[in-house]
Amino acid sequence: MAPRYYTVSWEQLHRDGKALAWRLMDKGPDGGPWRGVVAITRGGLIPAAIVARELDCRIIESISVVTYDEEERGKPQVVKPAEAAGDGEGWLVLDDLVDTGTTAKVVRALMPKAHFATVYAKPAGKPLVDTFVTEVSQDTWILFPWDTEQQFVAPIAKTAKS
Protein backbone atom coordinates (compact mmCIF):
# COMPACT_ATOMS: atom_id res chain seq x y z
CA MET A 1 0.00 0.00 0.00
CA ALA A 2 1.31 3.46 -0.90
CA PRO A 3 1.97 5.69 2.08
CA ARG A 4 -0.31 8.58 2.93
CA TYR A 5 1.22 11.98 3.46
CA TYR A 6 0.19 14.41 6.19
CA THR A 7 1.67 17.90 5.97
CA VAL A 8 2.22 19.78 9.23
CA SER A 9 2.67 23.57 9.07
CA TRP A 10 4.81 25.60 11.46
CA GLU A 11 1.62 27.01 13.00
CA GLN A 12 0.11 23.57 13.55
CA LEU A 13 3.35 22.24 15.03
CA HIS A 14 3.41 25.18 17.44
CA ARG A 15 -0.23 24.58 18.47
CA ASP A 16 0.39 20.85 18.90
CA GLY A 17 3.58 21.53 20.87
CA LYS A 18 1.67 23.79 23.24
CA ALA A 19 -1.05 21.14 23.58
CA LEU A 20 1.66 18.65 24.53
CA ALA A 21 3.01 21.10 27.14
CA TRP A 22 -0.48 21.36 28.68
CA ARG A 23 -0.58 17.57 29.03
CA LEU A 24 2.85 17.55 30.66
CA MET A 25 2.26 20.40 33.14
CA ASP A 26 1.75 18.28 36.26
CA LYS A 27 3.62 15.13 35.20
CA GLY A 28 7.07 16.20 36.39
CA PRO A 29 8.68 14.52 39.40
CA ASP A 30 6.18 14.64 42.29
CA GLY A 31 3.95 16.85 40.14
CA GLY A 32 6.62 19.56 40.10
CA PRO A 33 8.96 20.91 37.43
CA TRP A 34 11.12 18.71 35.23
CA ARG A 35 14.86 18.56 35.91
CA GLY A 36 15.37 19.15 32.21
CA VAL A 37 14.28 18.31 28.69
CA VAL A 38 16.08 15.93 26.34
CA ALA A 39 15.41 16.56 22.66
CA ILE A 40 15.85 13.63 20.31
CA THR A 41 17.56 15.13 17.29
CA ARG A 42 16.76 16.25 14.84
CA GLY A 43 12.98 15.96 14.84
CA GLY A 44 12.56 16.59 18.56
CA LEU A 45 14.50 19.88 18.61
CA ILE A 46 11.66 22.24 17.69
CA PRO A 47 8.99 20.48 19.81
CA ALA A 48 11.46 20.43 22.73
CA ALA A 49 12.03 24.18 22.40
CA ILE A 50 8.28 24.85 22.36
CA VAL A 51 7.54 22.57 25.31
CA ALA A 52 10.54 23.78 27.33
CA ARG A 53 9.40 27.37 26.87
CA GLU A 54 5.83 26.60 27.91
CA LEU A 55 6.99 24.63 30.96
CA ASP A 56 9.58 27.32 31.84
CA CYS A 57 12.37 24.75 31.70
CA ARG A 58 15.82 26.16 30.93
CA ILE A 59 17.90 22.98 30.95
CA ILE A 60 17.85 21.32 27.54
CA GLU A 61 20.00 18.37 26.56
CA SER A 62 20.00 16.40 23.32
CA ILE A 63 20.48 12.86 22.17
CA SER A 64 21.06 11.97 18.55
CA VAL A 65 19.83 8.61 17.31
CA VAL A 66 20.10 8.02 13.60
CA THR A 67 17.52 5.56 12.24
CA TYR A 68 16.46 7.03 8.89
CA ASP A 69 18.17 7.97 5.67
CA GLU A 70 15.44 9.95 3.91
CA GLU A 71 12.51 7.46 3.98
CA GLU A 72 14.60 4.28 4.46
CA ARG A 73 14.96 2.73 7.94
CA GLY A 74 18.31 1.47 9.11
CA LYS A 75 19.85 0.11 12.31
CA PRO A 76 19.65 2.76 15.06
CA GLN A 77 22.91 4.35 16.15
CA VAL A 78 23.42 6.73 19.07
CA VAL A 79 25.80 9.31 17.64
CA LYS A 80 25.48 11.72 20.61
CA PRO A 81 24.28 10.59 24.06
CA ALA A 82 22.40 12.80 26.55
CA GLU A 83 25.03 12.53 29.28
CA ALA A 84 23.55 15.21 31.57
CA ALA A 85 20.28 13.26 31.87
CA GLY A 86 21.86 10.11 33.31
CA ASP A 87 19.19 7.41 33.67
CA GLY A 88 16.50 10.00 32.92
CA GLU A 89 15.07 10.37 36.42
CA GLY A 90 13.10 13.61 36.49
CA TRP A 91 13.79 14.31 32.82
CA LEU A 92 11.36 14.76 29.96
CA VAL A 93 12.41 13.20 26.64
CA LEU A 94 10.80 14.76 23.56
CA ASP A 95 10.56 13.73 19.94
CA ASP A 96 8.38 14.84 17.07
CA LEU A 97 7.03 11.37 16.30
CA VAL A 98 7.10 7.78 17.47
CA ASP A 99 6.74 5.54 14.42
CA THR A 100 7.75 1.91 14.91
CA GLY A 101 9.31 2.62 18.29
CA THR A 102 12.86 1.84 17.18
CA THR A 103 14.30 5.14 18.42
CA ALA A 104 12.14 5.08 21.56
CA LYS A 105 13.47 1.62 22.51
CA VAL A 106 17.06 2.82 22.19
CA VAL A 107 16.42 5.97 24.23
CA ARG A 108 14.40 4.10 26.88
CA ALA A 109 17.26 1.64 27.31
CA LEU A 110 19.61 4.56 28.01
CA MET A 111 17.15 6.60 30.13
CA PRO A 112 14.68 4.11 31.63
CA LYS A 113 13.41 6.54 34.28
CA ALA A 114 12.60 9.39 31.86
CA HIS A 115 9.11 10.42 30.80
CA PHE A 116 8.87 9.97 27.02
CA ALA A 117 6.62 12.37 25.06
CA THR A 118 6.00 12.93 21.36
CA VAL A 119 3.77 15.26 19.42
CA TYR A 120 2.59 12.53 17.04
CA ALA A 121 2.30 8.76 17.53
CA LYS A 122 1.69 5.80 15.23
CA PRO A 123 0.08 2.60 16.54
CA ALA A 124 3.28 0.48 16.48
CA GLY A 125 5.22 2.96 18.61
CA LYS A 126 2.42 4.32 20.81
CA PRO A 127 2.96 1.80 23.66
CA LEU A 128 6.51 3.15 24.12
CA VAL A 129 5.37 6.73 24.72
CA ASP A 130 4.04 8.09 28.01
CA THR A 131 2.36 11.19 26.53
CA PHE A 132 1.48 12.30 23.00
CA VAL A 133 -1.00 14.65 21.30
CA THR A 134 -2.13 13.16 17.98
CA GLU A 135 -2.28 9.60 16.67
CA VAL A 136 -1.85 8.97 12.94
CA SER A 137 -2.16 5.73 10.99
CA GLN A 138 0.90 3.53 10.58
CA ASP A 139 1.01 4.10 6.80
CA THR A 140 1.04 7.91 7.15
CA TRP A 141 4.29 9.74 6.41
CA ILE A 142 4.29 13.06 8.27
CA LEU A 143 5.84 15.91 6.32
CA PHE A 144 7.23 18.29 8.93
CA PRO A 145 7.75 21.97 8.14
CA TRP A 146 11.55 21.65 8.21
CA ASP A 147 11.31 19.01 5.46
CA THR A 148 8.98 20.88 3.12
CA GLU A 149 8.51 24.21 1.40
CA GLN A 150 5.52 25.92 -0.14
CA GLN A 151 5.25 25.88 -3.90
CA PHE A 152 2.71 26.45 -6.63
CA VAL A 153 0.38 23.55 -7.46
CA ALA A 154 -1.60 23.61 -10.72
CA PRO A 155 -5.41 23.50 -10.49
CA ILE A 156 -6.92 20.02 -10.67
CA ALA A 157 -8.70 20.88 -13.95
CA LYS A 158 -5.34 21.57 -15.61
CA THR A 159 -3.59 18.47 -14.28
CA ALA A 160 -6.48 16.05 -14.95
CA LYS A 161 -6.23 16.63 -18.73
CA SER A 162 -2.69 15.31 -19.03
UniProtKB/TrEMBL annotation:
PANTHER family documented for this protein: XANTHINE PHOSPHORIBOSYLTRANSFERASE (PTHR39563), XANTHINE-GUANINE PHOSPHORIBOSYLTRANSFERASE (PTHR39563:SF1)
Family that this chain belongs to: Belongs to the purine/pyrimidine phosphoribosyltransferase family. XGPT subfamily.
Role summary: Purine salvage pathway enzyme that catalyzes the transfer of the ribosyl-5-phosphate group from 5-phospho-alpha-D-ribose 1-diphosphate (PRPP) to the N9 position of the 6-oxopurines guanine and xanthine to form the corresponding ribonucleotides GMP (guanosine 5'-monophosphate) and XMP (xanthosine 5'-monophosphate), with the release of PPi. To a lesser extent, also acts on hypoxanthine.
Pfam families: Pribosyltran
The EC number(s) this enzyme carries: 2.4.2.22
Upper taxonomic lineage: Bacteria, Pseudomonadati, Pseudomonadota, Alphaproteobacteria, Acetobacterales
InterPro entries: PRTase-like, PRTase_dom, Xanthine_Guanine_PRibTrfase
Pathway recorded for this protein: Purine metabolism; GMP biosynthesis via salvage pathway; GMP from guanine: step 1/1; Purine metabolism; XMP biosynthesis via salvage pathway; XMP from xanthine: step 1/1
Binding site for Mg(2+): D96
Species this chain originates from: Roseomonas elaeocarpi
Superkingdom of the organism of origin: Bacteria
Main subcellular localisation: membrane
Keyword Chaperone: no
Binding site for 5-phospho-alpha-D-ribose 1-diphosphate: R42, G43, D95, D96, L97, V98, D99, T100, G101, T102, T103
Ligand binding (xanthine): D99, I142
Protein's recorded name: Xanthine-guanine phosphoribosyltransferase
Residue ranges of domain Phosphoribosyltransferase in the record: 9-150
